[in-house]
Design a protein that fits this description.
The structure holds 2 protein chains of 2 kinds.
Chain A: E1 14-25, E2 28-39, E3 43-47, H1 54-61, E4 69-74, H2 79-89, E5 90-93, H3 105-113, H4 122-128, H5 144-156, E6 162-166, H6 174-189, E7 193-198, H7 201-207, E8 210-215, E9 218-223, H8 225-230, E10 236-242, H9 262-266, E11 271-277, E12 280-285, H10 288-302, E13 306-313, H11 316-324
Parallel strand pairs in A: 3-7, 3-8, 5-6, 6-7
Antiparallel strand pairs in A: 1-2, 1-4, 8-9, 10-12, 10-13, 11-12
Chain B: H1 3-18, H2 21-41, E1 50-55, H3 62-74, E2 82-87, H4 92-98, E3 103-107, E4 113-116, H5 122-138, H6 159-189, H7 192-197, H8 203-231, H9 241-262, H10 269-286, H11 301-306, H12 308-322, H13 330-350
Parallel strand pairs in B: 1-2, 1-3
Antiparallel strand pairs in B: 3-4
Helix pairs in contact in B: 1-8, 2-6, 2-8, 3-5, 6-8, 6-9, 6-10, 6-12, 8-9, 9-12, 9-13, 12-13
Classes of the chains: A alpha/beta, B mainly alpha.
């Protein structure tokens, strides 16, 4: 490897190993006994709402915060004994860092590059994050997406073995998000190990080989995106609207028709789960074709008018809802 | 020590500073404006004429008229030491209160005079002596001993000569503390410090880069101010430039370390501004920039003399005005060195990177 380490350096099989991690701030428990293991070459996602403890966890792994208890091994080593060794080998993108406004893109990267023993050339990294045209522009004049790509470039100049990305696309417009995603996909193809946090289920689903769903400082589900969705026992989600949508000026009221209850719907064949949502129900079903006819029959016999009837393939969002009863965005 | 990153960090400081036009203005132009203004205010000129008021007298009071005439004629001509103006009897208190005149002469019946003035004002006491002298002589007093004035005016004894080393010291203090405090707290507030702490950057080098970039600007600051002082204001530099630079360098390093200490915890620029003013204000007052620090009572002298700005002001003044060498300013260097070491050690210990 590039770092010219000792011959007896054994490459640890796991890039990251976290066991029994706990961290409290006063009476607030941010991380409550969290376990993780990330294999080399993986893109691993911590998915959860804001305040779930993702950032605290990742900052402890990055050596920027200390745990109250639990163990963290990064690239087989610990922060207590090998901090500088680790700093040379990690690439880190923090949530909401603002780089120096008055420096240019090139100057910013030269500064970060100078901290590492070995790494990639400035030109190479600028090309990689597609900031060639902005090379001599000051950071102040960059768009949100460009700033975020520069932050990613700063994490890449040291040619890291392990890359931590904390909420890499939060606050970006859809086009900038997609651009950043394709950059991360490129890094994955190079076989780089990536740990990222996100509260966007589409981001986790698209980028991550493995996902840990985190809530209240604990991992509540773990697996590949496919495994997690399969764990629902449902391929699709049906959304039913009941009653008239409330007029926009009136106070919003949940108008669930008393003539059909969630319980009744849950007893229909092929319905595996469901919940009450604003102005209707959401049902997880194993087969849309099997459930739809019974829904229509029920509506006809009770004289119910569905104001909405939509279906979508089950997503990680639905997994989170099934596990916690809340939506990711609600936090 | 990684020279490449020390160089990059120092360059970063340098770039951030020169790309902030306001900072450049306040660092270089402001002291020049101040020195220029003071040079005008304290320019070479004839000894100040005291302005004396005479209360107008009622027509027919001959004795009083004699006094007024004697004063007015004494105020004629280029060599006159007094300027006399008439003051209505009912506004004596007002002109004294507002300071338009230093002294009011009130002729009394029977040919006497009354002097009204505030003895707490130096120029009022001087005006009283001069007026009395002029009046007595004009009305016939003979001098008992013949006397003659031989005046001298030496370069280096003017107020501006006294002030320029003080201004230089004050500027070193202000720019050292402010530039560090502002830059560090801004970076902490934007979480850039945390981002840097997440790299293998040496934290010592980071702090060292502030000192190095300060030195680049220190050379410029000293050059501009001393050049102006020496060429435009004719302020003497009697000691060696080398000794002057050593004292300025140690002073800048000490204030840089104090700046580091001041900014080691604050998260906002507002917070650190208050702290910075709190630290600097006593020194502006007590350290003898504008007037000699020996004016303060003996009871607080130990504190006054222990202030780092007092040490820097005294050191620079001794070198520039008295021409002493480095050996003569060792106590001042020791005070500054102590501030440097203690502040640096404490700052590194309590510095907050996030």
């Amino acid at each position: 490897m590039r770092h010219g380490g000792h011959l007896d350096e054994v490459v640890a099989p796991l890039a990251l190993e976290v066991a029994g991690l706990r961290k409290s701030y006063g009476s607030v428990t941010a991380v409550n006994g969290l376990d993780l293991s990330v294999a080399r070459g993986q893109c691993f996602g911590l998915l959860g709402p804001n305040g779930a403890g993702k950032t605290t966890t990742i900052e402890i792994c990055e050596g920027l915060n200390t745990a109250d208890s639990g163990t963290v091994r990064v690239l087989g080593r610990t922060w207590d004994t090998d901090a500088m060794w680790l700093r040379q080998r990690l690439g880190i993108q923090l949530q909401e860092t603002q780089l120096a406004d008055k420096l240019t893109v090139q100057e910013t990267l030269s500064l970060f590059r100078s901290f590492y023993d070995a790494g990639r050339s400035i030109d190479e990294v600028i090309d990689l994050v597609q900031l060639g045209e902005k090379r001599t522009a000051r950071v102040l004049g960059l768009s949100g997406g460009q700033k975020q790509r520069l932050a990613l470039a700063c994490a890449l100049v040291g040619d890291p073995e392990l890359l931590f990305l904390d909420e890499p696309t939060t606050g970006l417009d859809p086009q900038s998000r997609r651009q950043l995603w394709s950059l991360v996909e490129g890094l994955k193809r190079d076989g780089r190990t990536i740990v990222l946090t996100t509260h966007y289920m589409d981001e986790a689903e698209r980028l991550c080989d493995n996902i840990a769903i985190v809530d209240h400082g604990q991992v509540i589900a773990l697996g590949t995106p496919r495994q997690l969705i399969a764990s629902l026992g449902a391929d699709n989600v049906i959304r039913l609207g009941l009653g008239e949508p409330a007029p926009t000026n009136a106070p919003v009221t949940v108008s669930v028709d008393a003539s059909v209850s969630l319980d009744e719907l849950l007893h229909l064949p092929d319905v595996t789960g469901g919940r009450v949502v604003a102005s209707g129900y959401e049902l997880r079903v194993s087969s849309v074709q099997a459930v739809l006819p019974s829904l229509l029959r029920l509506a006809e016999s009770r004289g119910i008018r569905w104001t909405e009837l939509s279906t979508h393939s089950a997503t990680l969002e639905d997994v989170f809802v099934a596990l916690t009863g809340r939506e990711l965005r609600e936090g | 020590m990684r020279l490449a990153s020390l160089k990059q960090l120092t360059m970063t400081r340098f770039r951030e500073f020169i790309r902030e036009p306001e900072a450049v203005f306040w660092t270089f132009v402001f002291p020049l404006l101040l020195a220029g203004g003071l040079a005008i205010a304290f320019r070479d000129k004839a000894p100040e004429q005291a302005i004396v008021g005479v209360v107008s007298t009622a027509a027919g009071d001959d004795a009083a008229m004699r006094v007024a005439k004697a004063l007015l004629s004494a105020a004629q001509g280029d060599s006159a030491v007094l300027r006399v103006r008439r003051v209505p009897a009912d506004s004596v208190e007002e002109v004294l209160r507002t300071g338009t005149v230093a002294l009011v002469v009130v002729p009394t019946s029977g040919g006497g005079v009354e002097y009204r003035y505030d003895p707490a004002r130096d120029e009022a006491r001087a005006a009283r002596q001069q007026t009395d002298d002029v009046l007595q002589r004009a009305l016939g007093r003979e001098d008992v001993v013949p006397s003659r004035d031989v005046t001298m005016r030496e370069r280096g004894s003017r107020y501006i000569d006294f002030f320029v080393p003080g201004l230089l010291a004050m500027n070193i203090m202000g720019s050292s503390i402010w530039s560090l405090a502002f830059a560090i707290v801004t970076q902490r507030n934007k979480r850039l410090l945390k981002r840097l702490a997440a790299t293998p950057m040496s934290r010592f080098e980071y702090l060292l880069s502030f000192v190095l970039s300060r030195l680049i600007f220190l050379g410029l600051e000293i050059g501009v101010l001393l050049g102006f002082g020496s060429m435009v204001l004719d302020v003497p530099i009697r000691g060696s430039i080398g000794a002057l630079l050593v004292v300025a360098f140690v002073g800048a390093a000490a204030f840089g370390a104090i700046g580091l200490l001041v900014s080691s915890r604050s998260r906002t620029v507002e917070g650190v501004s208050g702290l910075t003013n709190f630290v600097m204000l006593p020194m502006w007052i007590f350290s003898g920039v504008f007037f000699a620090s020996s004016n303060f009572p003996a009871a607080i002298q130990p504190v006054v003399q222990a202030l780092p700005l007092t040490a820097l002001v005294n050191g620079l003044r001794a070198i520039m005005l008295q021409g002493v060498g480095l050996g003569g300013v060792l106590p001042e260097l020791a005070v500054l060195g102590a501030y440097l070491v203690v502040s640096l050690v404490v700052a590194l210990r309590i510095f907050r990177w996030q």
